[in-house]
Amino acid sequence: MPLLAAVPAAAQPSDDPVVLVIHGGAGSIVRAQMTPERETAARTALEAALRAGHGVLTEGRPALDAVLAAIELMEDDPTFNAGRGAVLAADGTARHDASVMEGATGRAGASAGTMHVRHPIRLARAVMEHSPHVLLTGEGAEEFAMTQGLELVPNEWFVTERRREELERVQRREREAQGEAGPRLEQMTGTVGAVALDQAGHLAAGTSTGGMTNKRWGRVGDSPIIGAATWADDATCGVSTTGHGEFFIRLAVAHDVHARVKYLGEPCAQAAQAVIHETLQAAGGTGGLIALDREGRVAMPFNTGGMYRGFITRSGAVTVRLYPDEDE
Amino acid sequence: MPLLAAVPAAAQPSDDPVVLVIHGGAGSIVRAQMTPERETAARTALEAALRAGHGVLTEGRPALDAVLAAIELMEDDPTFNAGRGAVLAADGTARHDASVMEGATGRAGASAGTMHVRHPIRLARAVMEHSPHVLLTGEGAEEFAMTQGLELVPNEWFVTERRREELERVQRREREAQGEAGPRLEQMTGTVGAVALDQAGHLAAGTSTGGMTNKRWGRVGDSPIIGAATWADDATCGVSTTGHGEFFIRLAVAHDVHARVKYLGEPCAQAAQAVIHETLQAAGGTGGLIALDREGRVAMPFNTGGMYRGFITRSGAVTVRLYPDEDE
Q1: CATH number for the domain including B170?
Q2: What are phi and psi for residue A291, nearest 5 degrees?
Q3: Rounded CA gap, B60 and A291, in Å?
Q4: Whole-angstrom distance, CA of residue B13 vs CA of residue A125
Q5: Is residue A81 part of a domain?
Q6: Do A218 and B141 lie within an 8 Å CB cutoff?
Q7: What is the pLDDT of residues A50-98, one digit of tens each?
Q8: How many percent of chain B have pLDDT more than 90?
């Protein structure tokens, strides 16, 4: 099976619908700056996440199980800005945000600012399933994680050499620039996410991130915000976003895709394209999203130099892409 | 000027548009359970907040200044669940959430879980105006507040005898009920908010709360979530919500009002009614919202026993209501 199937997004044959779509972050992914090793690592990791989620769906399990299977692998993989190997806050710690939503029930859960929960996406799900709340934060969220028996690890477990150097580089630039304190684009564009369609025809979506390098003041981006980063409604589509989170909050990007489908009657893929290439673009924001509807039609629009992304069909055909020119 | 003008919401004369609408929480406000003192206190406080914001608008200052003037008064007034006199978390502390959004620019700011910032709504505004972020949380948010010279007070300053007794009552009930740990409706339905229209024709909205009595695990409701509790777009409307926050997040209520206006072409008041009486109602959620458009047309729908609410017109005519049957 070819790693890069020549199947145009949003037009794959309806007898082999997409059942899982994932992203691993959007940003200035330029071929010239990628080593072959990093490129191979990214493609391999994306394909592994797709196959993990596909296995779950093939067993007839719910869409949310597949979302978790895919995201947990990406959280553990230092290639992506989530879980282990996530970017570091200004104080050198890793702080994670995550959210999930179910299309059949409209239930949702999220956590923000945790430092010890190995799989933040599992915490988001536990908040949805085992608390009366949608969003838990900080130490309180970790207390709740303990009551749920979730795996905890020392913060150090998440920290990789690459991210430590990245933080040092950013802080050195900041000191040199003095007053000019605006965070830079390349610091803000990592996240992982997944949207799945199960055999019962239900959608689920999830998003997980370490946020932004050198973040301060308990900054929370869009990843734990239902309606900004994550949305799922069986009647419209499932969405997970990645990019400069502040814009995604201010534009309620994930909910906006849903609203266009619901109120304008646009197909999910068309709504997804419009929100990224018209609304986000006009606002000056950068990033991308993945979207999937109940018919298994997928969209993966972005307005950055590249986006780690891929999907798998019911029959198991995998498509993985990094650069813009891989889309036909 | 009568305190209860006989002007139907959403149909006030266009030569005297509404320029400021506020709410002080929705819930089971039953006449039989209100003392005359509490009723008078609520009506007086709502009118004072409206007049404060009106004064700002009359001076030609921006809509956001009026939103802050109204909300700061309500934050300081123990009548409402925001700032001083807000409900208490499970550990007996007051923890505040707030958000603001500007209709002209789409800029937004929010803070969650602060314990020492006297006026959380000012912090939300400072996040919008003086940070590159939209949402700051916990101790980090307070660190940022210090850099902005915002007034800090001991947490004890916020705590009133009434709320301490309320927390004790809820915790006693919880112990008696044992396993049945679901939070009760009356614990969740307080918030303050405002939407203003300035002389330049721009909208702004803001929301502030202490959240839910006996909250745990760093629970954050909808109040600091742009798109859930707060939205403002000059092209559609400004919105602030109050109610059972988890539903407002899962339905992206504030953004949904905007989306109906933008994509369905509904008038703001009609969209506001539909979101509360159709979407929220169908989901089993409770609460209400205030909405205002650029023509000064107002809506204040809710599906609870009552909602503290009121508006003031350009000429200074005040309407204040608590119960459902005060609407014609």
Answers
A1: 3.60.20.30
A2: -145, 150
A3: 45
A4: 49
A5: yes
A6: yes
A7: 999 999 999 999 999 999 999 999 999 998 989 998 888 989 999 999 9
A8: 75
SS3 assignment for B236-273 = CCEEEEEECHHHHHHCCHHHHHHHHHHHHCCCHHHHHH
Q: Which residues neighbour A95 within 8 Å (Cβ) at sequence distance 6 or greater? A: A89, A113, A114, A115, A210, A211, A215
A198: domain range?
A: 9-327
The pLDDT of A252-256, averaged and rounded, is: 98
Portion of chain A with pLDDT greater than 90, in percent: 75
Q: How many domains does chain B have?
A: 1
Q: Number of residue pairs across A and B with CB atoms under 8 Å?
A: 147
A191 carries an active-site annotation: yes
Nearest CA in chain A to B221: A135
Who among A141, A246, A259 is closest to B217 (CB)?
A: A141
Mean pLDDT of chain B: 90
Q: What is residue A305's predicted lDDT score, i.e. its pLDDT?
A: 87
Judge: B137–A263 Cβ closer than 8 Å, yes or no. Answer: no
| Start-to-end C-alpha separation, chain B | 19
Question: Cα distance from B61 to chain A (closest Cα, Å)?
Answer: 24
Residue B1 lies in a domain: no
Q: Which secondary structure element, helix H or strand E, spans residue A102, and what is its range? A: strand A96-102
pLDDT band at A307 (very low <50, low <70, confident <90, very high): very high
Residue with tokens 């309407």: B319
ipTM computed for the complex: 0.91
Q: Is A299 helix (H, G, I), strand (E, B) or coil?
A: strand
Q: What are the strands of the beta sheet with B306-313, ordered from one edge? A: A219-220, B135-137, B108-114, B96-102, B203-209, B192-197, B18-27, B306-313, B318-321
Q: What's the rounded mean pLDDT across residues A257-284? A: 98
Residue A1 lies in a domain: no
- What is the secondary structure of B49-77 as a DSSP string? HHHHHHHHHHTT--HHHHHHHHHHHHHH-
- Would you call B112 and A137 a contact, using CB atoms and an 8 Å cutoff? yes
Does residue A6 have a pLDDT over 70? no
Quick check: B249 and A228 CB within 8 A?
Answer: no
Extract the tokens encoding B231.
């939205």
State the smallest CA–CA distance between residue A145 and chain B in angstroms. 9
The DSSP H or E segment spanning A170 is helix A161-177
Q: Does the residue A109 lie in any domain? A: yes
Q: Is the pLDDT of residue B178 over 80?
A: no
Q: From the candidates B79, B189, B191, B304, which is the catalytic residue?
A: B191
Distance CA A62, CA A102 (A): 10
